[in-house]
């Protein structure tokens, strides 16, 4: 259902036409060109709610790589292609480092936490989070060991289901979630833990709802959360349940906290809260702890598990690629040794395939939108402070000027003529600049170790002809999620 359907949009226009106009539609004469907006709905009739990134690409054919699009009453600067995105987010990093405030998420999280914060709150929480993750081993041996342990548990789960039709969704999300749980909560959960499985189902449901056209509709017309609250009420109920779990975990940490021996992220945050107690400018308080833990729990579970799920589907569609990875694993690691990060530099083909999976699935095609932090001049245009900015990551990951065959799955995009791994500057699945994903290092480690461990032990097969596999995602306005599937796991 595309933005609740054209009929609903038409009704809104008729009811509210005399009340609203797109904000600042004519104040800034030197904004980039773009399609003429209609009252109230702006250019929404020109944007497909199921694939907005494709609509933006089509519009850029007419208006260029830097254009203005009105989403309801919100004026947005859309950046298309590697050069425009890189110039804005890297060369003008400070100006484009603001985070857009999504009314739906602001209401759910009350504006707290790392993901949606700006200004001093964002600086303090990001600096603290990056430092804490490094101290607990992001990119170091200790977290590598946690991932290796979790990969062993995941391998055993798949082995129990060998030769049976399996849905990989919760196998993978339980394993990936346990990695971030080890870092944030200081513990992993058994795969059969009913509450843990229930929480993961709530996370998965919320990601699907937020990514849906109806979820994004609330961000364009926030008042609809009160008028048509169905989807919002489900989201709020799920967030409340997850927050109750987080509150219990924080309470348990407070009762057993040792200031000299922090065990995990929560302990470190609680110690920081004590140190800054009484400071009026502190951002280290219960609300930010609660919301940031939720941010990490969600981001550390869904994006990596989705990438693994999509990646396995791709490897089943192209069994010759899967077989070539098997051969490289056998040659470099063997069947009896545990995959480790030290193996990656000796496995250029596997590394290239993992990078190509991330490029090709394009998990966040419209990025998480930014806002400008001050008035600025960009490519000869005047961009006001507070302008919504959409750096279209899809247009970077599929830029014809940067990739040999962007529409095809081609590991050669990351291999030189000698078969050695090569990086492409247009590889931006984690975004780039000051708002690049804080967990990028952890994510890269997880993807390599999980993929290597699974393919060391198993072959994955589609129950039908691989030619019938569709790699098209399900309908989504934000994240690209693979359609549900089952597969057969065969021990090697």
From TrEMBL:
<dbReference type="Pfam" id="PF00067">
    <property type="entry name" value="p450"/>
</dbReference>
<keyword id="KW-0560">Oxidoreductase</keyword>
<keyword id="KW-0503">Monooxygenase</keyword>
<dbReference type="GO" id="GO:0005506">
    <property type="term" value="F:iron ion binding"/>
</dbReference>
<dbReference type="GO" id="GO:0006082">
    <property type="term" value="P:organic acid metabolic process"/>
</dbReference>
<keyword id="KW-0472">Membrane</keyword>
<dbReference type="GO" id="GO:0016712">
    <property type="term" value="F:oxidoreductase activity, acting on paired donors, with incorporation or reduction of molecular oxygen, reduced flavin or flavoprotein as one donor, and incorporation of one atom of oxygen"/>
</dbReference>
<feature type="binding site" description="axial binding residue">
    <location>
        <position position="437"/>
    </location>
    <ligand>
        <name>heme</name>
    </ligand>
</feature>
<dbReference type="GO" id="GO:0046222">
    <property type="term" value="P:aflatoxin metabolic process"/>
</dbReference>
<dbReference type="GO" id="GO:0006805">
    <property type="term" value="P:xenobiotic metabolic process"/>
</dbReference>
<keyword id="KW-0256">Endoplasmic reticulum</keyword>
<dbReference type="InterPro" id="IPR002401">
    <property type="entry name" value="Cyt_P450_E_grp-I"/>
</dbReference>
<dbReference type="InterPro" id="IPR050182">
    <property type="entry name" value="Cytochrome_P450_fam2"/>
</dbReference>
<keyword id="KW-0492">Microsome</keyword>
<dbReference type="InterPro" id="IPR001128">
    <property type="entry name" value="Cyt_P450"/>
</dbReference>
<comment type="similarity">
    <text>Belongs to the cytochrome P450 family.</text>
</comment>
<dbReference type="InterPro" id="IPR017972">
    <property type="entry name" value="Cyt_P450_CS"/>
</dbReference>
<keyword id="KW-0479">Metal-binding</keyword>
<dbReference type="InterPro" id="IPR036396">
    <property type="entry name" value="Cyt_P450_sf"/>
</dbReference>
<keyword id="KW-0408">Iron</keyword>
<keyword id="KW-0349">Heme</keyword>
<dbReference type="GO" id="GO:0005737">
    <property type="term" value="C:cytoplasm"/>
</dbReference>
<protein>
    <submittedName>
        <fullName>Cytochrome P450 2B4-like</fullName>
    </submittedName>
</protein>
<dbReference type="GO" id="GO:0020037">
    <property type="term" value="F:heme binding"/>
</dbReference>
């Amino acid at each position: 259902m595309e933005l609740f359907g054209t009929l609903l949009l038409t009704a809104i226009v008729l009811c509210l036409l005399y009340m609203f106009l797109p904000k600042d539609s004519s104040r800034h004469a030197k904004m980039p060109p773009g399609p003429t907006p209609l009252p109230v709905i702006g250019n929404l009739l020109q944007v497909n709610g199921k694939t907005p990134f494709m609509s933006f690409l089509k519009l850029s054919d007419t208006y260029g790589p830097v254009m203005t699009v009105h989403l309801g009453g919100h004026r947005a600067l859309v950046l298309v292609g590697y050069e425009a995105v890189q110039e804005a987010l890297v060369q003008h990093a400070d100006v484009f480092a603001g985070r857009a405030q999504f009314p739906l998420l602001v209401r759910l999280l009350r504006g707290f936490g790392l993901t949606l914060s700006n200004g001093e709150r964002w600086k303090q929480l990001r600096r603290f989070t990056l430092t804490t993750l490094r101290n607990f081993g992001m990119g170091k041996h200790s977290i590598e060991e946690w991932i290796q342990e979790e990969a062993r548990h995941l391998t055993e789960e798949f082995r129990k289901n060998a030769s049976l039709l399996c849905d990989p969704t919760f196998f993978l999300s339980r394993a990936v979630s346990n990695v971030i749980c080890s870092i944030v909560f200081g513990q992993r959960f058994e795969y059969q833990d009913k509450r843990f499985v229930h929480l993961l189902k709530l996370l998965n449901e919320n990601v699907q709802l937020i990514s849906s056209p109806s979820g994004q509709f609330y961000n364009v017309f926030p008042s609809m959360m009160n008028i048509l609250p169905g989807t919002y009420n489900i989201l709020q109920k799920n967030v409340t349940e997850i927050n109750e779990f987080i509150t219990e975990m924080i309470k348990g940490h407070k009762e057993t906290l040792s200031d000299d021996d922090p065990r995990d992220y929560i302990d470190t945050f609680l110690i920081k809260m004590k140190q800054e107690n009484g400071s009026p400018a502190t951002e280290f308080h219960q609300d930010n702890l609660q919301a940031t833990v939720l941010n990490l729990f969600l981001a550390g579970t869904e994006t990596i598990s989705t990438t693994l799920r999509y990646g396995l589907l791709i490897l089943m569609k192209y069994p010759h690629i899967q077989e070539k990875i098997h051969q490289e694993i056998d040659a470099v690691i063997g069947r009896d040794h545990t995959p480790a990060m030290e193996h990656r530099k000796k496995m250029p083909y596997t590394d290239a395939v993992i990078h190509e999976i991330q490029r090709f699935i394009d998990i966040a095609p419209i990025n998480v939108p930014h806002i400008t932090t001050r008035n600025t001049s960009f490519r000869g245009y005047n961009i006001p402070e507070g302008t919504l900015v959409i750096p279209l990551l899809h247009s970077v990951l599929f830029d014809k000027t940067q990739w040999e065959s962007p529409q095809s799955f081609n590991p050669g995009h990351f291999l030189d003529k000698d078969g050695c791994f090569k990086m492409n500057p247009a590889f931006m699945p984690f975004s780039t600049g000051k708002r690049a994903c804080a967990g990028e290092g952890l994510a890269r480690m997880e993807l390599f170790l999980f993929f290597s461990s699974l393919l060391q032990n198993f072959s994955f097969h589609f129950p039908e002809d691989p030619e019938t596999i569709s790699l098209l995602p399900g309908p989504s306005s934000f994240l690209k999620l693979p359609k549900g599937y089952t597969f057969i796991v065969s021990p090697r």
